[in-house]
Every structure is written in structure tokens, then in C-alpha cells.
User: Fold these one by one.
Assistant:
Number 1:
Amino acid sequence: MYAVRANPDAMAIAAKYTAAIFLFWFFVLTTYRLFFHPLRNYPGPLFAKISDAYAGFFAVKMSLHLTTYSDLKKYVRHGPNKLVFNSATALRDIYNTEKTNKSRTYLLTIASGKPSVFSMLDKRNHRVRRKIMAQAVNDKAIRAFEPTMTEQIEIFIQQLLLSSRDSEPVNVTERCKWLGMDIVGHLAFGYALNLQTDPTNRFMIPGLAVSTYQFNSFMQWPLLKTLGLRHLLGITSTKDRLKYAKVLYHIIGNRLSEPVHAHNDLYSFVADHLENATDGIQTSELWSEAVFFFPAAGDTTTTAISALFFYLSRNPTAYKKLAKEIRGTFRQYEHIRGGQQLTGCRYLRACIDETLRISPPASGSLWREPYNDGAPVVIDGHVIPPGTQVGVSAYALHHNEEYFTKPFDFDPDRWLVQDEAALNLMHSAFAPFSLGPRGCAGKSMAYLEAGLVMAKTIWLFDFEIAPGKLGTVGEGVPGRDTTDLTWSSIYVPVGRPTPPEWTYRECDEISHRSLSRHIKQDHSLRNRQVVVTPMMVLERVV
Ligand code: HEM
């Protein structure tokens, strides 16, 4: 028998050689990326030219959209293989074409080993999947779903009404997130999550935020995922994420036990088309779609709505114009529904668009690559070498003065000017939903939801910035600080009669938690949103 012992000298030598090899490799790679790489002549921050850690660092800090905005004043190269552009021509060249494809970084978002409509790179497979998913969000499906959406919005309004009785500040961000999740529960799997009235499932909001945050960070800095560095950086809150996954599992399991057409939901459209997993829900295509669909449909729209509350509470002129339009258009609260009257509210649409411009819920660069068919790809006059990731940041382009004068001003009227050339110019650079074959499939649903929530709220209530410190939450220096929180005080407007059929469902928790708690919670959402309205005090108007 022999005991094998490590020789300390041999170990020291091995460590030295490993370090030397690593340093040599690092030196060669850095030299190549700086002086021989096909993108060497594009200006960029030094560290970005060398490593994806540059963008990764700011993604982890949740301020990448701001860094991109300021870097674009001088730079184009935003990673060893990444070019970011800031023009309407580039927007069209990159997204409104078949010559590019989603970048391979989207594969990092795959949750079950099977891609979703969002992460599918193969164009033919994507077209088929997109067609299936689109059935759940086309005009016919939206009309069928509207009553369910309205029911949830009514709960939102009733809860505001309860809070408005004592004119206490309300965290509008939180309320909007609960609403969004309740709507998407019904839309996806006909499931009543009841976040608005029951605190049990509210942990799903931070759970979802953690997942989104991770995916965002991985997509900028893939090494985080490959080497498990996320743990070192402490960006994983596994507890909430796992709890979230458990609920999603339960929701899907519950739906699978019902007949396919038991609800007017996404499942009823996709059930017959998605591959069944033999080894459980979490490896099925349905799981992948669900993991994508909840944040895509639930988080984005409500981020926009809460941001709109924020801007309106700080812009009295816009606020008054909108209130006048809504209260003048709908003689009775019950008349507020999807249709011509609502779409005819041009100022409302301008307010929503202005919010999506100034604070796009998907604010980062959505990376694309030249499609692998050898055809040259030209972006804004630049021939792009194969393997290069190209993108436009909606946040940066929406604040580009070439297209939008005073880009940090919230000015819905800019969308209503008579000057057709100016309007066309702005529209050419407006892309909150992206565009082309991979653009948002749920745009109409998002406008309906935002329109209904805003019209109903402003018909019935008045709101203003919360008093004291709460009212300052979310405010920051435009273009410098991430103004991602919004608290406003919603005061229910005075004198409007409550629709008689309303029964006030007592909310389990209308408690108003401490400011620090809200700050902490909303901090985790920062990556996705630039401004979200926190606390509002409501006042009944009607
Ligand atoms: C204000 C609200 C919304 C915004 C700003 C928004 C934005 C976007 C953006 C920018 C993309 C492209 C992502 C990328 O290229 O990586 C996208 C994709 C998508 N969105 Fe939305 N979205 C919103 C609401 C919705 C809603 C309500 C639904 C569904 C009901 C939805 C469903 C989808 C789907 C299915 C895709 C994937 C499209 C594909 O790859 O074929 N979105 N969205």
C-alpha cells in the first residue's frame, strides 16, 4: 500500500505555470482585440474593447442604459464583438430585416433546454411558433379577453378607492405590478393569482425581477453564467426565484388538468402545438413559453403604466389636458372600454407614447447578428463583419436630440404637432416595442391595458405627488440617475358618484410599508425600467 502525497514543490510549479499561461493568454487576447480585431477601428471605452465585463458591470449595477446613452456621444464599440448604434437608419437596418438574427446570447435565457418564441434562433421554427403565439394576442383574442382584463382593472380601481378614503399615499408601482401579474395569470393559463387582494403570491414580483435581472446580466456578460460568477457577485436571490418557479409549476399543472378550451387563454391556443415533455413540466416547451410570457406580458405594460403615473403627477399641464379629454369623452365611467372612443383619445395615446419614449420598459440594446447565410450586412453605412453583435438601445435613441427636441422633457404634445416631417422623424426613431419579425407580438394588448387603466383611474380620481420624502422617491437627474421609483399620492377625485354595483372587497393588506422597504424592493427592478411611479395619494374626483 502506498499513500499518495502531493509534492508542495510540484504544486507551486504547476500554479506558476498556470498563472504564466493565463497571463500569456490574456496578453495575446487583449493585443488581438485592441490591434487586430475586425472592429479595432471603432471607438470604444478601452475596457469594453477588451472584455464583455464592461457592459456586464453596468448591467449588474442596473445602469447600462445610462452608460450606453452617455458612451454613444463618443463611442460605438461596446464590447469586444459589439457595436451599438444610435440612429433611425440603424434601427431599421438591424431590426426590420431578415438579414440579421437574434444574437446567440438569447440562448442564455433558455430555461428548460427548449427555446421559447423569444429565444428561438432558427428562423423557420420561430415563424411557426410566432404564428401560434400570435393567436392569443390578435384582435379577436383581445376582444375575447377584454372582459377578464377589465375585471382585474376594476379590482385595481376599487383598491385605490379604499386607499383614497383616508387620502393615504399609495405605492402605485406596487399596485401596477400586482395588477399586471393578475392579468397575465388569466391571460396565460386562466389562473387567478389574486395578488391585488391576497398577499400570498406577492413574492412572485421580486422572484420575477430576480430572473429578469439575471437574464439581462448574462446576456451582457455570458461568463457570469458560464463560470457561475453570479454567486460571487451576489446577484442571485435563489429563494424567491425557486418559490416563483414552484408557483409557475402549480399554475401550469393546474391548467393541464383542465380541458384545453376551459379558458380563453394562451394555453388554449398553444396546447395542441407545443411538444409534450415526457420528463415533466419543467422541461416542456410550455414551460419555456410561460417563463418568458409572464415578464413579457406582465411586467412591461405595468412598468409603463406606473411610469405614466409618475410623469403625470409631475406635469400639471399634461395632467389637466388628459383629465379634460377623458372626462369629456366618457360621460359615464361604465362607458370606458376598448373601442373607437378609447382609441380616439389622442392625448391619452400621446401620453402613453411619451412615457414609452422617455422610459422604455425594454431599454437596453437588443443584440442581433448577421444571419449566417454569408450575405453582407450593412448597418447605417457600415459593413458588419460576421460574428459581430449589433444593436440599438431604445433608451439612447429615444433621447437622441436629432429626433426629439428636449428629450428629457415629458411632453405628450410633441406627438400631436401638425408638422408631418417632424412627426415622421420622431416615429422613425421610436421603438419601445422594437420592430420587424422579432418585434413585440403583444403591442395592441399593451395599449389596451394601459389605456383602460389610465382612463378609468383619471376619470374617477385625482392624484398628486405624495407629500414629504415619499414624493421625492424616483426623482433623479435625467440621463444621470436611474429614476426608477415612483410614489405618488392619489387623491380620489371629489364628487364623482361611485358606480352603485361596486362592492368594496376589503383588501387584506392596504398597509403602507416603510419607505426603505419600497426602495429596496424597487431597486431590484431597476434594470428594466428607468422610471416607475412610486407613491401616490388619490382623491375621488367624480
Ligand atoms: C408596454 C408593453 C410592452 C413593451 C414595451 C414590449 C416590448 C417588447 C420588445 C422590445 C420585444 C422584443 C424583444 C427582443 O427583441 O429581445 C418584445 C417581444 C415580445 N413581446 Fe412585448 N412588450 C410589451 C408588452 C407585451 C405584451 C402585453 C405581450 C403579450 C400579451 C407581449 C408579448 C411579446 C412577445 C410574444 C414577444 C416575442 C416576439 C418574438 O420574438 O417573436 N409584449 N416586446
Note: The first strand starts at residue 77 and ends at 79.
Number 2:
Amino acid sequence: MAPLTQNGQAPTGRRGPTAPPPILEASGLVKHFGGKRMLLKRSPLVRAVNGISMSVKEGETLAVVGESGCGKSTLGRLLIRLLEPSAGDVIYRGRNLGNLTPDELRRLRGELQIIFQDPFASLNPRMSVSDIVSEPIWLKGGSSRGERRDKVVEILRTVGLRPDMASRYPHEFSGGQRQRIGVARALASDPRLILGDEPVSALDVSIQAQIVNLLEELKERLKLTLIIVAHDLAVIRHMSDRVAVMYLGEVVELATTDTLYDAPLHPYTQALFAAIPQASAVARHSIKPLDGDVPSPTNPPSGCKFHTRCPHAKPLCNEARPQLEAVEGGRRVACHFWREIAAAGSDPRPIARPSARLEKRLALYTACQAGRAELLSHRSSTPTAKDQTC
Ligand SMILES: Nc1ncnc2c1ncn2[C@@H]1O[C@H](COP(=O)(O)OP(=O)(O)OP(=O)(O)O)[C@@H](O)[C@H]1O
């Protein structure tokens, strides 16, 4: 089993001569918050991200999953340089973002965009839709007022909103429509890579499917790369090509979506997926969902951060931090004993039927996928005022 190189890639040669270079590569990313002296005492040091090395391939959808507080949003924001790392580098299309001048970074900002979780909080209530969407175009520079107006109209159509909605204000829209405005704002600067930070979790389930489908459609049409931070494993399975599983500031497993859902290797991934046993092969292995809470990132356990909750923990896990190790098929796992755990779990049982709730959600996605062509033609002619149907 070949170990990873410093930048989180498999050793040179494994990628193959024809594989395109990643659009983004992170190496040794660390982000600590706090730890500053305040009057009489020091604020606690929060170790949000601890030495993550990974890459994002051009045109893929990479999902980042994990329990609340494990550092998903922080990692996402570090990758698009919305946050400055405490240590480590992000190389975007061959350029180290840490070495750019503020001016160079501002010019590059349009290529790296974000869609926020909460469409109610993330839009300025005092700005019209037209102002919200045209601001990034204006910031990019080089366009006249008329060109900006035309581009706003085009982008609104692209995200399924009517051009006459441009003069309205965010409070006049439904949740799904507001998230479409958030998507329009992200698209306005012609991005190459978009971070979706829980882009659908604040929305009603039926609206979630619309936004998921919109993002997928835009990704294909505009050749975007997506990083999706989310905790909804059904949405992740539907949307992503690869999944990075995080635990307490570290990536513990990284694999293609099908591989990960069919046979998770890390005990944390297994336990995470056991919360939706019918949706994954972990149902075959009677793995229990996780007990207890994630330890505090201000005082993380030594060695493997997961050992305090891991059913397979051995003394070594308390002593040494496991490295992300390359496994066949481009998958990576950070566990000292993944081979033993995988071998012990080779007693497959039939997969249980999906729960009624999961079945409903999967059916909804399928229906929305099937209705996409119809929806698109509907949007361009007589778009709906409210996001009520697929
Ligand atoms: N600006 C900040 N100052 C101090 N601590 C922070 C800050 N931002 C995040 N943290 C802490 O860093 C840790 C990781 O936070 P982060 O938001 O990245 O987690 P997450 O996995 O995205 O959580 P959630 O799913 O709940 O959004 C948490 O303990 C959080 O409290």
C-alpha cells in the first residue's frame, strides 16, 4: 500500500499520464481559532482543521461530510481562501493562493465562489435582486451598465427566475427562490469552482430537490467544479462523485461515492452510515450508529481522534495519529486497523429495504430528474412564481 506524498496525492505515476491535473490541491492545511490573550486569560484554542492534504479534480463534485463541528465549513472556506489558514497551502490551478497579493486575490475571487446555507440570512435585504446579482459583475470590472443588466437577465433565466423579478427584494421571495438568487450571485462572476456550504439544508425537502437538480444541471452546463459541504447523506449520495469524511478537523476517509457507500472502511464512516443503514452496505454488518458526542476541538484526544468512540480501538490508536493511506482505486483511509476491520466484516447480509422516508426522498429525486427537461422548457417560457413543484 503506497503512502501519500506530502500534498496528499498518490505517488507520481499513479495518476497516469492522461489524467488532468487537479483544479485545487491543499497540503497540510491547519486552521486554529482563538488562543489569544484577552485581559487576564487566554481564549481557548479551537483546532478546527488539523493538517488536511487533499485535491479536487476539475469538473467533479466533491462532498465533505461529518458530524456538526467537525470542521467541514472551515475546510471549505480554507479551500476557496475565504479563510486564511494558520498553516499549509492551497494551490489553485498551479498558483499558491497564499502567495497572491490582495489585488491578485481579488481578481481571482470571482473564480472561487460560495453558496451559503441560509438564503434568508445571506442576502442583503436592502439590495434588489438586480443589485445583488450585478455586484460581482461590477467588482470584476470591464462591463458597462447595459452589459451588466443583460447579464443579470441571462443569469436569472439560467437559475429559473423571471427577469422581471430583478427589481424585487429578497423578502418578496420563497426560500427556494432566495436560494436561486444565491446561486445567481455565485454564477455572476463566471466561477470555475463553487463551494456549496450546506446549500439545501435550510430548505423544505421538496425545494431541496429542485436546488440539488439546479446545481447538477449548472455544473454540467457551465463545466463547474463543486465542493459540497453537507450532512445529509442522501443528498450527498445523489450529488457527489467523491466524498471526504471528516472527523474532528481531519479527513479520515476519501473515496468515490459508490465505493464509500458500498463498503466504508473507516470505523467512523461505517458508524456514520449506520445512521441510515438501509442506504448503505453497512446494514450488512450490524454496525451500530455512533454513541456520544464529538470530543471538543479545544481538547482533542491524542493519536487517532476517533479512538475514544471507536469500537475497534487498540492501545496504538491512543498513541499514534494514523496517516491518510492510499488504498486501491484512489481511495484513502486513515485508520491503523482498517484491514483487520474490513476482514472481520466480510459476512454480508442482504441489504434491508429502504425506510419509507428515504424511499420517498429517492423517489422525489428520480421524479425531479425525469421532469427536468420539462421544467427547463417551462422556465424559459412561463416560469413559475413560486417554487411549488419539481
Ligand atoms: N470564527 C470562529 N471562531 C472560533 N471558533 C470557530 C470559528 N469558526 C468555527 N469555529 C469552531 O471550529 C469548529 C469547526 O467549525 P465548522 O463550522 O467548520 O464545523 P462544521 O463541521 O461545518 O459544523 P456544522 O455542520 O455545525 O456547520 C467548531 O468547533 C466551531 O465552533
Note: The longest strand covers residues 45-56.
